[in-house]
Amino acid sequence: MSLVILNWIGAAALCVAPFYITTSEGQALAILGLALLTRQAVANKTWNLVTLNIIGIFGYFSNFIG
Fold first, then answer.
1. Whole-prediction pTM value?
2. Structural domain boundaries, residue 42
3. Would you tell me how many other CB atoms lie within 10 Å of the CB of residue 60?
């Protein structure tokens, strides 16, 4: 699978996640989307976005596990 497609999947997951964020599925989508877009942010060396994405992943994961 092309890495560009993974970027688009991450973006799509983050577009859908807010509508279901109160469910575990929505939180999982947010985690997946942020993880996929973090790879792109690292490649582009946009460290502020990497930091925001990692903090978001930890936040959604802490809510996901209860």
1. 0.90
2. 3-64
3. 21
